[in-house]
């Protein structure tokens, strides 16, 4: 059965993106600061279909595990627009559902990546993603507003946060506007490293909280 997972990196002060985001400045220019741990792993570059001299350590195994368990992605329009101009073809290797008000035909890339543009909310996107995932997990990929919507709706089963030892100071926080009463969090795993701290949580829905789907 598919799990709904959020797997995101943040700074020590809680930011997942900087300021002045856009296609010419993805994530507000902070990708290297909070995702630097991935750049040293071959698994990351393999996912982008880019040859590298890097090798995989334990964190490469984390990347491989997350990629292998993911059967579909859900993301917001802003994240899609920032990546559309620079992502390699067939990076995702599965179906991606983009939450947007824009009406647009599916974009099928060479390989097995197809972007579908969903105009009727997170529940519709999740229903379609579950069918596409065929029993594998569904990754809520961002940005922050999309993650917050799924968390507040009580729809997330697992949260994997990678905390980089840097301060961003300004930008977009991942956990702003979160309803603290939806879940009880249980730490499943803590993995320290030189460049980040990985913490995996199970999200147990509180009994007095109804799930929207």
UniProtKB/TrEMBL annotation:
The UniProt entry's GO biological process terms, in alphabetical order, are:
riboflavin biosynthetic process
What InterPro entries does the record point to?
DHFR-like_dom_sf (IPR024072), RibDG_C (IPR002734), Riboflavin_Biosynth_HTPR (IPR050765)
Q: Domain Bacterial bifunctional deaminase-reductase C-terminal: where?
A: 3-186
GO MF term list: 5-amino-6-(5-phosphoribosylamino)uracil reductase activity
Q: Name one Pfam family in it.
A: RibD_C
Query: What domain of life is recorded for the organism?
Result: Bacteria
Q: Where is the signal peptide?
A: none
Q: What is this protein called?
A: Dihydrofolate reductase
Which species does the entry assign this protein to? Sphingobacterium humi
């Amino acid at each position: 059965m598919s799990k709904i997972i959020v797997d995101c990196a943040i700074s020590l002060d809680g930011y997942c993106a900087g300021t002045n985001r856009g296609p010419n400045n993805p994530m507000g220019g902070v990708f290297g600061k909070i995702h630097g741990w991935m750049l040293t792993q071959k698994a990351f570059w393999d996912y982008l279909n880019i040859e590298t001299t890097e090798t995989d350590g334990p964190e490469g195994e984390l990347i491989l595990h997350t990629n292998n368990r993911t059967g579909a992605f859900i993301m917001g329009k802003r994240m899609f627009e920032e990546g559309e101009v620079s992502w390699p073809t067939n990076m995702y290797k599965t179906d991606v559902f983009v939450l947007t008000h824009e009406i647009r035909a599916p974009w099928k890339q060479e390989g097995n990546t197809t972007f579908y543009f969903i105009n009727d909310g997170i529940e519709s996107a999740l229903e379609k993603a579950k069918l596409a995932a065929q029993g594998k997990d569904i990754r809520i990929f961002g940005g922050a507003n999309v993650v917050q919507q799924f968390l507040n709706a009580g729809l997330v089963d697992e949260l994997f946060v990678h905390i980089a030892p840097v301060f961003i100071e300004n930008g977009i926080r991942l956990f702003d506007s979160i309803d603290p009463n939806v879940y009880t969090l249980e730490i499943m795993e803590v993995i320290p490293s030189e460049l980040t701290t990985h913490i995996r949580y199970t999200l147990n829905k509180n009994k007095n909280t109804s799930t929207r789907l």
